[in-house]
Design a protein that fits this description.
The protein has helices at 12-15, 60-76, 84-107, 114-127, 132-141, 146-166, 175-191, 211-229, 234-241, 263-269, 323-338, 344-351, 373-381, 412-442, and strands at residues 49-53, 56-59, 195-204, 256-257, 281-283, 286-296, 304-315, 362-366, 391-393, 396-409, 445-447. The chain has 452 residues and is α+β, with helices and mostly antiparallel strands. The chain has three domains: 9-171 and 435-447, Triger factor/SurA peptide-binding fold; 193-296, Chitinase A, domain 3, CATH 3.10.50.40; 304-409, Chitinase A, domain 3. Strands 4-3-6-5 form a four-stranded antiparallel β-sheet. Strand 5 and strand 6 form a beta hairpin. The longest helix is centred in the C-terminal third of the chain and has 31 residues, at 412-442. It is globular and about 90 Å long. The two termini are 35 Å apart.
């Protein structure tokens, strides 16, 4: 964790959605915030008015600050920033749109409660693994006052609420929309380029092999195929049977377009779902056992997810237990578990301060996005059976153990809901662009001296 504060910028819109949703245990997804960079490509100029939006001015200094923020984000994302002649007008237009939307929000009665700003601050502090007092100190250290920081948060929350009211809430996806999309997909997939990740077991057949040797090698491949179809660990079967050089990744060939796979492989797996194993494939190299690890069709929502089965011990800092003390206590718990002096479930039942304690800290199977990011990011780095170091989230300090992972295909009902969500996002983006253009067209904008 860098000492500098993770800044707000564009990701804060996802964060402040917390003001619209009540936390349910751990399962509140919050977008992580990008860190700032030190580059400062633009020199500070004298301040003056560059535009007026419905009598409210935009100053040269405002444009400079936003240009700097945009520049930092591009560098952070390892993208080449455009020339100032391109970036500055884009930033100014964005500020005009933002100003017009904020004015509309206030004129139509929207407002932001202090409690919503407090909650947003707490969420940012938790993601940086600090408290709010330290957050304020770092904000000031980076040249911003606390009131400016809170005003920026308030504006972001206000814009989010305006969009939810005037755009998101009006978008509907009908059952007919879903049916039509699903009917159109076979034709779209035929013209698109499906991406597939296959894992293989190769039983190599030498060019000089006799018919008897080929038969023996085929029997060996069929044994591997039968065991794979019975659900045995494919990576273990790769180590036992495969003559290929790609054993280190469980035989996986990586996600790539079907055009980059041998036609034999594509035909053998075309009708299979994720997790299925194809019939034995014969090539000049030998016999192949192929398993579909991942399949992505163009324009379709993902139809499989990787779920994680985890348990945790949660300690909540209080007047009687500081965060540092909670960390130390969990470190000691981990040492005891690794030394086999006790087990995770017993410690969770006796110490965890949430509803999972009675189940030994078991949180069950979780799909992506069900836990807060700092928890989920740590969980995703664990191997089955591994225990994390203490992790701080907005709920407290956690000790996490990953029990197992699995790939799960969505049910037909879940697939329809995934399709509905994807179509709704597309419709929202289209509706937002039209709405934003309309708000901009209805605003009185007077351009003054160009920004520098």
């Amino acid at each position: 964790m860098t000492h500098r504060l993770k800044t707000l910028s564009m990701a804060v819109l996802a964060l402040v959605a917390l003001s619209q949703a009540q936390a349910q245990g751990l399962r509140v997804p919050v977008a992580p915030l990008p860190s700032p960079v030190a580059a400062k490509p633009f020199q500070t100029q004298a301040d003056y008015i560059v535009a007026v939006v419905n009598s409210e001015p935009i100053t040269n200094m405002e444009v400079q600050r936003e240009v700097q923020r945009e520049f930092q984000q591009l560098v952070q994302q390892h993208r080449a920033p455009p020339d100032a002649e391109v970036l500055v007008p884009e930033v100014l237009e964005g500020l005009i749109n933002r100003k017009a939307q904020l004015q509309l929000a206030r004129e139509t009665g929207l407002h932001v409660e202090e409690s919503a700003i407090d909650q947003a601050e707490q969420s940012i502090a938790a993601q940086n693994q600090i408290d709010v007092a330290e957050l304020h100190r770092r904000v000031q250290q980076e040249g911003q006052t606390i009131s400016e920081f809170r005003a920026q948060l308030s504006d972001q929350i206000l814009l989010q609420r305006l969009r939810e009211r005037d755009v998101d809430s009006r978008v509907r996806v009908s059952e007919q929309d879903i049916d039509q999309f699903l009917r159109d997909q076979p034709a779209a997939a035929a013209t698109g380029d499906t991406q597939v990740n296959l894992a293989q077991i190769l039983v190599a057949v030498p060019e000089s092999a006799t018919p008897q040797q080929v038969d023996a090698l085929k029997l060996r491949a069929q044994r591997a195929l039968e065991r794979a179809r019975k659900g045995e660990d494919f990576a273990a079967l790769v180590r036992e049977f495969s003559d290929a050089t790609d054993q280190g990744n469980g035989g996986q060939l990586d996600l790539r377009s079907t055009s980059r796979y041998p036609e034999l492989f594509v035909k053998a797996t075309a009708s299979l779902s994720v997790g299925d194993v194809a019939d034995l494939v014969r090539s000049p190299a030998g016999f192949h056992v192929l398993k579909v690890i991942e399949k992505i069709r163009p324009g379709m929502p993902t139809m499989t997810v990787t779920q994680s089965h985890v348990r945790h011990i949660l300690l909540v800092p209080s007047a009687h237990l500081s965060e540092a003390e909670a960390r130390s206590k969990l470190i000691e718990f981990k040492k005891q578990i690794l030394a086999k002096q006790t087990d995770f479930a017993t410690l969770a039942r006796d110490n965890s301060q949430d509803g999972s304690a009675a189940q030994g800290g078991d949180l069950g199977w979780a799909s992506p996005g069900m836990f807060v990011p700092e928890f989920e990011a740590t969980m995703n780095r664990l191997a089955p059976g591994e225990i994390s170091d203490p992790v701080v989230s907005r709920f407290g300090v956690h000790l996490i153990q990953l029990l197992e992972r699995r790939k799960v295909s969505l049910t037909p009902e879940q697939q329809r809901e995934a399709t509905r969500a994807m179509l709704r996002e597309k419709k929202i983006e289209e509706a937002y662009r039209t709405w934003a253009q309309d708000v901009r067209a209805r605003a009185y904008v007077e351009m003054r001296e160009p920004p520098k």
